[in-house]
Amino acid sequence: MKRGILRSLIALSVTLVLCVGTANAAAFQDVPEDSAYAEAVAQLSQRGIVKGVGAESFGPERSVTAAELATFLARTAGVDAATAAEGLVDDGWSAGSMAWAKTAGLVGEKNQYDVLTAKEINEILGRFCAMVGVKAPEVTGATRADLVVALNTIASGSFQRLNSVKYTTVTTAEDWGPAIGKVILDLGVELDPASVTAEKFSAVSVRTVPGFDFATMKPTAPAPQPAQRTVTAAYVCDEDGNQTEAGTRVAVEMKIGPDETAGSPFNYDFVSGLNSFVDTSYVVSLTAPLSTKAGVPLSMEPTDAKGAAGNVTLLADDFTEGTHTWTGDGKEITLGYASWLPHEDAEKGSTPLIIWLHGAGEGGADPTISIIGNKVVNLATNDIQKHFGDTGAAILAPQTPTMWMDLDGTATYRNTENTDTGRSYYTDALKSLIDAYLADHPEIDTDRIYVGGCSNGGYMTVNMIVEYPDLFAAAYPVCEAYDAAWLTDEMVESIKDLPIWLTAAKNDGTVVIFEGEGDPANYMVYNLKLDEDGNPIPKANFSNDLYDRLVASGAENVHYSLFDDVHDTTGLYKGADGKPYQYMGHWSWIYTLNDECVETIDGQETTIFQWLSQQSK
Question: Do the Cβ atoms of 363 and 403 come closer than 8 Å?
């Protein structure tokens, strides 16, 4: 044991002097000019790759340690390896390089001051050369003299190693929520597109999120959660990530899906009940070199948090964000909003307005969350806009600081208290925001204002139409949570002539409209109770109650898309049974926002937004 410690100390004393020396090979008194390694020493020392073991000594016959070789290779690759890692001696010159070499998989399990054999040197050189894309030389001995000859061969070769690569993430809004599905690398070098393939890239997401202690019902300290992503494609692209025939950027696409949580930029806070963006970085690395346009092997240091140059959220970035403050009844309430216009120079009174009211998890102070937590941005695509003709339809997505069902501004749910009214704490503030938006946008056709939303936002939709029935041309509440006990006959009478299209799913376990019970083993599942004929048993509340009472009141333009469940309709996502992926039954807004609610109206199959576009006061 003592002998091993002594050997390490001797190695440390030898390698410590490697940080001094000279770049002038002629000054090394122990390097004969006619030696086989003199030219290598001269060239490498001039480039700052190797240094001496003293002011006038190179130490050609000395053994090579793992720390030395790691440092020489880091300098050869141009790596700025300044950060030591746990378990390494911070000696002021080799710890960072050793940490880099271990991360890159070059030195295996070697300790910092282990003396290397010729075989071990060749193995490490082989790994390095494979990484940078050049042929590996071999050493026959294990001295510094042997090593510098091999190193000079590598350093004199033609390869390029990139450091501090910048990258941009690309987020899209999907049926289940937002997903980071692409990383754009800015390499700054003209690339050979044929050399860029998915197999050459590895991607790891690092989401720094707080944990949650269910025993104490309190969050725990945020911690990095690295997770390997599946790379599905890679190609040369432009700055927006679109594939091109030539360029200096690479798009790395990754698998996304409802269960691919490593790709989500969101974290759900169990305390506040809100989604929020999390600090996310990406470690993208090459498993094999690319090629430059000139044919030079190209490798790169893995990206890290320092290289993060921002995020692009497709469609959402086209929205404008703002705030509106209402003051009244001794209260001051500020609502955020995201808005979108199909045309900047539309004529006065020409453009209908679609209002979307978010669910409970999308409240807060970042309106982007309210339009990508659910796929609200889809309203701005041609799939929806085509129904509104040449003018298109404007979009307004207000955001509450808490949730629409707030009793008093303290994030207390109205339905947890004995209240005889369903009026939202935010009713006046939301009406004020809508009025202000209309005043600022004279292009809006005030005879074609449509209001809808999901869950909490479905509640607020019903709240707004019973409060202001003359303001809207139509409503489209989804899995709405306005309790039947709050809905008076007078309210029903006031909205019976308002065109309304309801959407819900029978197996909704959150806003329950059919008898059943949740699955203790899977919170996503709500098992329906069946009657003696095998049919689900409806409950007289929420969407069921509203629809039935509207029909009973004589409403003629009311529709109800009631689905058995909520499942993937794209064909892209499957469950373990091979059938379409099953979402929570509460998520019926997926059908609405994809314009997949279809009813036969006047003998014609009509989608919900096709119908909405036809409504006017």
Answer: yes
φ/ψ region of 87 (left if φ > 0, alpha if ψ in -120 to 50, else beta) reads left
Distance CA 186, CA 196 (A): 14
The confidence score (pLDDT) of residue 158 equals: 85
Residue numbers in the chain where pLDDT is lower than 50 = 1-23
Per-residue pLDDT, 21: 41
- Listed in sequence order, the residues at least 6 apart from 607 whose beta carbon sits closer than 8 Å to its beta carbon are 387, 595, 596, 597, 598
Rounded CA-CA distance 311/236 in Å is: 18
* CB contact at 8 A, 443 and 349: yes
Residues paired with 324 in a beta bridge: 335
Q: At what angle do helices 144-155 and 118-132 cross, to 10 degrees?
A: 10
E strand or H helix that includes residue 552: helix 542-552
Residues 200/288, Cβ–Cβ less than 8 Å: yes
Contacts of 428 (CB under 8 A, 6+ apart): 326, 328, 329, 333
Q: Identify how many contiguous H helices and E strands the chain contains and give both numbers.
A: 14, 25
Please provide residue 291's backbone torsions phi and psi, each rounded to the nearest 5 degrees. -130, 140
Contacts of 124 (CB under 8 A, 6+ apart): 66, 69, 73, 101, 106, 107, 116
Cα angle 212, 218, 223; round to 5: 40
Find where tokens 């700055």 sit. Answer: 239
Which pLDDT score is estimated for 26? 61
**What DSSP string runs through 132-187?**
HTSPPP--SS-BHHHHHHHHHHHHTS--EEE-S-EEEEEEEEETTEEEEEEEEEE-
Phi-psi region of 534 (alpha: psi -120 to 50; beta: other; left: phi over 0): left
Can you tell me the distance from the alpha carbon of 70 to that of 66, in angstroms, rounded to the nearest whole number?
A: 6
Structure tokens at 229: 């992503």
DSSP one-letter string for 486-544: G--HHHHHHHTTS-EEEEEETT-SSS--B-EEEETTEEEEEEEPB-TTS-B-B-SSHHH
Which residue blocks in 2-117 are alpha helix, DSSP H? 2-15, 38-46, 66-77, 95-103
CA 405 to chain centre: 28
- The residue among 391, 287, 285, 269 whose CA lies nearest residue 341 is 391
Question: What are the residues facing 173 on neighbouring strands?
Answer: 178
